[in-house]
Amino acid sequence: MATSGGRVNRGPAAASDNRRAILRAARRVMAERGYRVPLSTIAREAGVGQGVLYRHFPTRLDLAFAVFEENVTELEVIAADPDPAAIGRLWRCLVDQAISSTAFVEMVVDARRTLPARDFADRLLGLVEATLNPARRAGVVPQEVVADDVLLALRMTLGVVVTAAAPEAVRPAVDRALALLDPPWARPGTGLSR
C-alpha cells in the first residue's frame, strides 16, 4: 500500500524503524539548525510523514527528550565505571555533548521552565557524584570538589557554546575557556587525553 507521498506504508511493522529514523534525523537536524527547527523538516529527513512523527512524539519536547535520553544513557555507562579516571571521561563527554547538541541544551533550559518534572538536573548530579566519589578517594580530585562545582563549570562551558560567533569557533573557544578555568577533574590523570 502506497501513501500519497509515494512512501510505502508498512503499518505497525515499521514502527520501531520509523522511531529510530526519526530520532537519528532529529539529532542531526536539531544539531545543525537548532531546537526550533520545523518538525516537518525532521519528518522529511527521516523519510516519514508528519503523522508518523506525531504518533511517536506528540510534542517537540517529547522528541527532544527522546534524543537527549540517548545522551544521558552514554553518560550513565561512563558513570557506572568505578575507575577514578571516569570523572575525566564523563567531563569530556559532557563537553562534547554540549558542543554537538546545543539544540538539546536549549531544550533542557526550555523544559526546566515549562516541565520541571522532566528536569535532568538531579540525574546529572547523581552521575557526576558517582564519578567524583572514586576520584576523590583515589586523590585524583581534591576532596573539596563537589558535584555542584562540576555542574557550575559545565554551565560556564555552555555559555561559551551558545555565545560563540560561528560553529567552527565553538571548540577552540571551549578549549580556551577550560584551559583558563583549569578544572581539577579535567587534568591529566583523570581519564582525559586528547
How would you describe the overall organization of this protein?
- With 194 residues, this protein is mostly helical.
- It has 2 domains: 46 residues, Arc Repressor Mutant, subunit A (Orthogonal Bundle); 126 residues.
- Helix content is 66%, strand content 0%.
- The protein has 9 helices and no strands.
- The model has no long low-confidence stretch (mean pLDDT 84).
Shape: globular
Largest sheet: none
Number of domains: 2
pLDDT averaged over residues: 84
Low-confidence runs: none
- Terminal Cα separation, in Å? 51 Å
Share of helix among residues? 55-70%
The count of DSSP E runs of length 2 or more, i.e. the number of strands, is 0
Radius of gyration (Å) = 19 Å
Tell me the series of helices and strands, N- to C-terminal: HHHHHHHHH
What percentage of the residues does DSSP assign to strands (E)? Answer: under 5%
Structural class: mainly alpha
Number of helix segments? 9
InterPro entries: Homeodomain-like_sf (IPR009057), HTH-type_TetR-like_transc_reg (IPR050109), HTH_TetR (IPR001647)
DNA-binding region: 38-57
Keywords: DNA-binding, Transcription, Transcription regulation
Domain HTH tetR-type: 16-75
Brief digest:
The chain is mostly helical and 194 residues long. The chain folds into two domains: 11-56, Arc Repressor Mutant, subunit A (Orthogonal Bundle), CATH 1.10.10; 60-185. The chain is built from nine helices and no strands.
